[in-house]
Model the fold of this input.
Amino acid sequence: MSVEALGQKLPESDWSTERSADLYRVASWGGPYFSVSAAGNVAVHPVDDVGVSIDLPAVVAELCKRGVQLPMLVRFQDILRMQVKRLNEAFADAIEESGYRNNFRGVYPIKVNQLHEVVDEVLDAGREFGLGLECGSKAELIAALANLPDDETLLVCNGVKDQMILSLIVSAQQLGRNVLPVIERYFEYETLKTLGWSKGFVPNLGVRIRLATSGSGRWASSSGLNSKFGLSLPELMRLIEELEAGGLLDRLQLLHCHLGSQIADIAVLKQATKEITQIYAELTKRGVGLKYLDVGGGLGVNYDEGHVNRDAGINYSMQEYANAVVFTVKEVCDAQGVPVPTLVTESGRAITAQHSVLIVPVLAAQVRDQLLAGEQVPEGAHESLKGLAAVLATLPELSETQELLEAFHDAKERETDIRSLFMLGYLGLDERALADRLFWSVCRQILDRLEAIDDGSLPPEIGELEILLTDQYLCDFSVFQSMLDHWAIGQPFPIMPIARLSEHPSRRGVLVDITCDSDGKVNQYISALADNRFLPVHTLNESERYFMGFFLMGAYEDIMGDAHNLFGRVAEAHIYADADEPQNFWIEKIIPGTAVQDMLAQVQYFPNDLQRRMSELVRAKIQAGVVRPSVGMEILDQYMACFQQSTYCGSIGGLDQDIV
Done:
C-alpha cells in the first residue's frame, strides 16, 4: 500500500483496521505480540497460543474500574517469558545446526530494567536455560547477589569497581557463588589481587577488551578503540604476563567485549565476534583458562525497521543474531584448533522492551480556530479583513494547484499586514481574533483542495500548511519521567491510539505533555507517512476518553525517568494471559503511582511540616475574619487530601466520562 493511500486523501468510508495497522506500522515493531483487531482495538498476543488474544482497551477499562490512576504502565509479564524462551531457543537451534560443542549461558543486564518484579520474572523464565545476571554498580551488585538462584548461575560484574565492590565479589566467590568481576581498568586488577592476598583466596575474574571494531547505530560510540571501558591489547598482555608469572592463568575465565545497546547491522556483529574470538583463541593457546566468551549486549529491537530513523531499526532477526555469534565463533575456533567456549550475551533490551505499554489519556486538543457557522465580516471592518474574507470566498472557484498556491500566498501576505496593523493599534482585539479565524479557514480549505488534486506533484507549500494546521494533543504524562530517551537522544517509540482503529484518523497531531517545559512533547513519530513530525489521530469526542498507547517502553524508560515538575512514577499493572479467563487475562498485581507526598519528600518538603504551616495560615485567616471557620476547615481538608493523590492530572471535562 502506498504512502499516499494511507494519507489524508483516503475517504473515511474506505478506511479499515488493516489500513490503520499499515499506517502505524504495527507489523514492523509489534510482531508477534501486537496487532489491530477486527473491532478496531489494539490486540496483545503474549503467549504462543494463537487462540489467546487480549483486548488492550478491555485491560485499561478493567484497571480503571479498580481505581488505577492514569497514566498507567501495563506490563504483559508473559512477553518477558516469551522473549527469554525465544532467545535461548534461537541459540539452541544455532548450536545444533552448527555442531557447536558447548552451550549458551545468557545473562540479563539489570541496568535495562532493575525493577524487582521484572528481574524475578526474567530469572524464573530463564531458570531452565541457566540464565544469569549482569550488574554494573554497587547497588546492582547487592541486589543481584541475593537473587542468584544457585551456585551455578553466572553473575557478570561490569562497570567501575571500588575496593568495597571487589571485596564483596571475592566474598561471594568464597561462598561458592559463580560471580566474575570483569576488569574494565587495570587498577581494578591490582586492587583485586591485593584483596585476594589479604583474604588468602585467589579469585576468578574476567576482562573486557576494547576492540578495533566499532558498533553500529545510536550507541556505536560505546565501542571501538575510544570506548569508555575495557583494556587495550597492550594492557591485556601486561595482565596475561602477570597472571602467567604467578601461575594464575586458570583464574582468567571470561573474555568480554561490548558493541553498544542496539546493534543495527549484523555485519558489524560478525566482525566484532570474529575479532574477539581471535583474541580468545590466542589466549587459549597460551594456556589461559578461559571458559566464557561474552559478546556483550546489543541484540536490537525494531522500533521501526527501515523508516524515519536508521537507528530505530535492525537488519536481522533474533535467529540471525544467534547464528552470527555461534557460527562465527565456531569458524574461528576450528581454524585455530582450540575448543569452543561457553557463549554469553548480555541481552536486556530484546528481553524487556516489548512487555511494557504506557497508556496515556488525551486531556484536550488545541486546534486552529475557524469561522463559526454563519459568521460574517462586519461591514465596517478594516479593508485587510475584507480582503482576507475575499480570498476565502474565491476558493470554491479554484481547481488548479497554481491558483490555490497563489491564494495561499495572498492570504499569508494579508495576515502579516493584519498583525502589523494590530501591533500599531489600528485594529481592535475582536477584529484580530476574526482575522485569525479567517486565515485558518483559508489554510484548511486550501490544504484540503491541494491534497485532493492528484497530479503527481506535491508543492512545498503542502508541508508548510500541514505544519501550520497540526493540532496539539495535550496528554496526561511527562516525557521526562516516562520516555526520557526520546527527549535526551531522540529515540523514537511506536505510539498509536489503542481504539477507534476502524475509523479514519483525520487529524494531524503533536503530542505534548503536562510539564511546563517547551521540550515536553513528542517530536517524531513512527508511521507510514513520509513526514514523521506529526501523528495521524482521531477527532476527540466529548463523550468518550481517547487513549494513546506508547509501546516498547520496557527497556531503560522505566528506570531512567526524571522528576521534572515533580511528576513521579506512574501506576503499573502486571497482566498475565489465561485462556480460561473471560477476557483471556487476569491482573496479578497493581502498584500505585508515586503520591504527591512521596515526591515532595524527595526534595525535602515533608508532609508534617507543610501541613503544620498550612494549618497555621488557615487559623490566622480565621482569626482575622478573612474566612469563616467552616470555610477555613474545608480549605485545610482540601489541602490535606492532596498529599495522597497522584502527581498527574485527574478528570478534566467531558473526556473523563467513558473508558473508550
Q: What stands out?
A: Residues 1-10, 653-660 have pLDDT under 50 and may be disordered.
